[in-house]
Amino acid sequence: MLLVVEQFLNGLQFGLLLFLLAAGLTLVFGIMDLVNLAHGSLYMMGAYFAATFAAWTGSFLLGALLALGATLVLGIVLEMSALRHLYGRDHLDHVLATFGLILFFNEAVRLIWGPAGLALPLPAWLTVPVPILPGIHYPAYRLAIIVVALMVALLLYLGVMRTRIGMLIRAGASNREMIGALGINIKLLYTLVFGLGAALAGLAGLMQAPILTVQIGMGENILILAFVIIVIGGIGSIRGAFLAAIFVGMIDTLGRAFLPNLLRQVLSGAAASTAAPALSSMLIYLLMAIVLVVRPEGLFPANRR
Amino acid sequence: MKAFTVSKAVTALMLAGLVLLPLYSQASGNIFILTLFTRIVILALAAASLNLIMGFGGMMSFGHAAYLGIGGYAVGMLAQEGVGSGFIQFPVALAASAIYGLVIGALSLRTRGVYFIMITLAFAQMAYYVASGLARYGGDDGLTVYKRSDFSGLINLSNRTQFYYLCLACLFAVIFLIWRIVNSRFGLVVQGLRSNEQRMQAIGFPAKRYQLVCFVISGMMCGLAGALLANNTDFISPAVMYWTRSGDLMVMVILGGMGTLFGPVMGAVVYLLLEEFLSQLTEYWALIMGPLLLLIVLFGRGGIMGLLGRLNRG
């Protein structure tokens, strides 16, 4: 029972983290029609910035805030210098160009921070276990991730659905020429959206950093997961991304936690312990394949045009 | 059609260079260059196969490296089980690739556009994880191929020069085949589907069936490259199926010029030589390579072949 609750929360936490990444990706995709493989690099940069700034300032929170700002700026610079010129081009061009950016970022990190990973230690007040139910404790930091991510998700929803900027963003997604003709600075809007996506990716990276090590290539595996999520959810749909992210986070976490034992009942011990990790990694891709076969546009296709 | 164009001249020069390379290697005693170019030729073969569906068929597969793994594992696993004959290994590699292509093609072709890119990627990742879970065949660490495929005296794969020429012959054969396919009725239908699927369907072509056959053919070609690759490195691991490897193949095709016959070969040669050259220049070669790719996309439409074509006109 204890294990089930704990793994359930872990799944929720991982799913919410994935949502932060997928939300930026699906915004950029839905609005600018840009396939950004380098989104995972922004996630990685967020983690590296946080580790560095936290070491400089000696404060985890201050480091996290600075890192958030830094990824925002990085995203804006990236958009203005390179990605802006890719709008309206073929998707393949996007894949190739941002693939190049991944190479660049990985190498730049190796040059600046060295090939070894970094650690981002947590302050003492975030490491204590918190009682959530009678007799069940859960790490405070993971709980904090859940709270922060839920708040960001809510803010994002309100921002997109209830504010003027959000209205412009939605309008830009459905008809970019029209909104440009109405006198909206579409270039600035795009830059803003990209910066927002970058900051969200950075936030996911810096929050994940204390749980895993900060290392080169950390963004690539999780990027593929984020892509799976936006494809399952329907490209351009934030609601779809949210539900799909929770779903994928749960399946991945619960699969890893319980599949080995389940398999052990059918297979021999050795075979089960080797097959289980591979099978649980496959589960998500299997899910995506099934979703795409049944609903080729994803579960919640954004209503466009 | 003009008799002489810059791109034709450069292509001919490159092909002549590939054919004469072992002579140079022998004369100069530079064995390394032959090993390097064997790898280049094999990956050029893989890129050419990707170009068949991507350039001519308009199917943007982001999971083509899976076939490299399937072909490679067919050789590695059979060798492990004591079946050393290439006459068995290579057909099995092709058959396994065809079956994989048939299954994932049938599922993936239900989607289009970016969804197609992503679903092919997802299937390749699945294949990657399956290979990682094969404990009997090395799992994550990969599998050493202790003995290269045995063609009972017909050709000796352990001889560098013979192996190089085998790979080159396979490459030429595949390019010839692609040329025949592209200019056949079948190939024209597939290209028509790339331009306008609805219209082709309206005039009565079963779109998916044509695309699926094309997809499977391309996969088999890439499976052949995988079987050769395992022989070249004497080793096969899940890493050859990783998604960045699929990305590499795409880069080669686009760099060389998508939808041209020799573009992917050119792309593979330039990409891998550039990688080799930059990595000798500096440890941080990707720092230059990354932005270079970006610049190629931004300013070099149509890849190298497109560039050469413009040279000719200008």
Automatic annotation (TrEMBL), chain A:
<keyword id="KW-1003">Cell membrane</keyword>
<dbReference type="InterPro" id="IPR001851">
    <property type="entry name" value="ABC_transp_permease"/>
</dbReference>
<protein>
    <submittedName>
        <fullName>Branched-chain amino acid ABC transporter permease</fullName>
    </submittedName>
</protein>
<feature type="transmembrane region" description="Helical">
    <location>
        <begin position="188"/>
        <end position="211"/>
    </location>
</feature>
<dbReference type="Pfam" id="PF02653">
    <property type="entry name" value="BPD_transp_2"/>
</dbReference>
<keyword id="KW-0813">Transport</keyword>
<feature type="transmembrane region" description="Helical">
    <location>
        <begin position="12"/>
        <end position="35"/>
    </location>
</feature>
<keyword id="KW-1133">Transmembrane helix</keyword>
<dbReference type="GO" id="GO:0022857">
    <property type="term" value="F:transmembrane transporter activity"/>
</dbReference>
<feature type="transmembrane region" description="Helical">
    <location>
        <begin position="140"/>
        <end position="160"/>
    </location>
</feature>
<dbReference type="GO" id="GO:0006865">
    <property type="term" value="P:amino acid transport"/>
</dbReference>
<keyword id="KW-0029">Amino-acid transport</keyword>
<keyword id="KW-0812">Transmembrane</keyword>
<feature type="transmembrane region" description="Helical">
    <location>
        <begin position="64"/>
        <end position="83"/>
    </location>
</feature>
<dbReference type="InterPro" id="IPR052157">
    <property type="entry name" value="BCAA_transport_permease"/>
</dbReference>
<dbReference type="GO" id="GO:0005886">
    <property type="term" value="C:plasma membrane"/>
</dbReference>
<comment type="similarity">
    <text>Belongs to the binding-protein-dependent transport system permease family. LivHM subfamily.</text>
</comment>
<feature type="transmembrane region" description="Helical">
    <location>
        <begin position="269"/>
        <end position="294"/>
    </location>
</feature>
<keyword id="KW-0472">Membrane</keyword>
From TrEMBL, chain B:
<feature type="transmembrane region" description="Helical">
    <location>
        <begin position="37"/>
        <end position="54"/>
    </location>
</feature>
<dbReference type="Pfam" id="PF02653">
    <property type="entry name" value="BPD_transp_2"/>
</dbReference>
<feature type="transmembrane region" description="Helical">
    <location>
        <begin position="210"/>
        <end position="229"/>
    </location>
</feature>
<feature type="transmembrane region" description="Helical">
    <location>
        <begin position="114"/>
        <end position="131"/>
    </location>
</feature>
<feature type="transmembrane region" description="Helical">
    <location>
        <begin position="163"/>
        <end position="182"/>
    </location>
</feature>
<keyword id="KW-1003">Cell membrane</keyword>
<feature type="transmembrane region" description="Helical">
    <location>
        <begin position="61"/>
        <end position="80"/>
    </location>
</feature>
<keyword id="KW-1133">Transmembrane helix</keyword>
<protein>
    <submittedName>
        <fullName>Branched-chain amino acid ABC transporter permease</fullName>
    </submittedName>
</protein>
<dbReference type="InterPro" id="IPR001851">
    <property type="entry name" value="ABC_transp_permease"/>
</dbReference>
<feature type="transmembrane region" description="Helical">
    <location>
        <begin position="86"/>
        <end position="107"/>
    </location>
</feature>
<feature type="transmembrane region" description="Helical">
    <location>
        <begin position="286"/>
        <end position="308"/>
    </location>
</feature>
<keyword id="KW-0472">Membrane</keyword>
<dbReference type="GO" id="GO:0005886">
    <property type="term" value="C:plasma membrane"/>
</dbReference>
<dbReference type="GO" id="GO:0015658">
    <property type="term" value="F:branched-chain amino acid transmembrane transporter activity"/>
</dbReference>
<dbReference type="InterPro" id="IPR043428">
    <property type="entry name" value="LivM-like"/>
</dbReference>
<keyword id="KW-0812">Transmembrane</keyword>
<feature type="transmembrane region" description="Helical">
    <location>
        <begin position="249"/>
        <end position="274"/>
    </location>
</feature>
